[in-house]
Amino acid sequence: MGIFDLSGRVAIVTGGNGGIGLGMAQALAAAGCNVSIWGRNDDKNKAALATMAGSPGKVEARVCDVTDTGSVKAAMDATLGAFGRVDGCFANAGIGGGGRHAFIDRTEQQWREMFATNLDGVFHVFQLAARHMTERAAAGDPFGRLVATSSLASIFGTARNEHYAATKAAINALVRALAVELARQGVTANAILPGWIKSDMTAGIMGNEKFVANVMPRIPLRRFGEPEDFGGIAVYLMSKASSYHTADTFLIDGGYTAF
Questions:
Q1: At what angle do helices 162-181 and 108-115 cross, to 10 degrees?
Q2: What CATH superfamily classification does 10-258 receive?
């Protein structure tokens, strides 16, 4: 077995039916990992599965709303029923801020909805995954990977997006705490901070010529990221190669933050 061979491992990818999540799921399955995609849209789930039909790893999809603890528990029980274990949990499901409203006009409902998906959703999924991983460690099988999709908004000031930024900064702190708390169980916890990536979430703004003219010169690689740019980091974090790498925040941004 090579260091990046994931045969026999099982990973959950929330929001794995499109964008960055699908890019990670495809690479994991190609490396031999069994993958369970959790997403709210059944049609998108099925379309995502179709792209991985020939992968060495088995793939399945579950309809799951990460804001709903009952929905998360049902998806976890079903995944454990299908695969017998969960070795990695990629908490990637999230909603964008859109930048439509000034902070002083932000409604309580907008604030709560953002936190319900982007932060509470990570809590719900990670808690069940960590509980399973802790129980396995106690039984002599210590291994676990918790990976959350954060954002450059957690370190840059983005106007009209303070609620989104706050959820992502909280995720960075959450993975650092979990990395310390769960280390003895063989569980690592890390966050991925994507730059400007092509996806359904960014399609609107990337169609804005003024935005592209302002942002592209700040990206040293001179292109927007693609979902497949997150395959390598997903496989690395899922593999034994990253056993000593925890509590980190990975910038996958084409050099944007450096320039």
A1: 30
A2: NAD(P)-binding Rossmann-like Domain (3.40.50.720)
| pLDDT, block means (10 residues), the chain with 259 residues | 94 98 98 98 98 98 98 98 98 91 96 98 98 98 98 95 97 98 98 95 91 96 98 98 98 97
Residue type, 156: F
Do residues 37 and 59 make contact, with C-beta atoms less than 8 angstroms apart? yes
Question: Which tokens in the block code for residue 85?
Answer: 């274990």
In the chain, domain spans:
10-258
Please give the structure tokens belonging to residue 64. Answer: 């799951």
Q: What is the CA radius of gyration of the chain?
A: 18
At 99, which amino acid appears? G
Token pair, residue 197, equals 């990536």
DSSP states along 103-152: GGG--HHHHHHHHIIIIIHHHHHHHHHHHHHHHHHHTT---EEEEEE--G
> Which residues carry out catalysis?
164
Do residues 28 and 13 touch, judged by C-beta distance below 8 A? Answer: yes
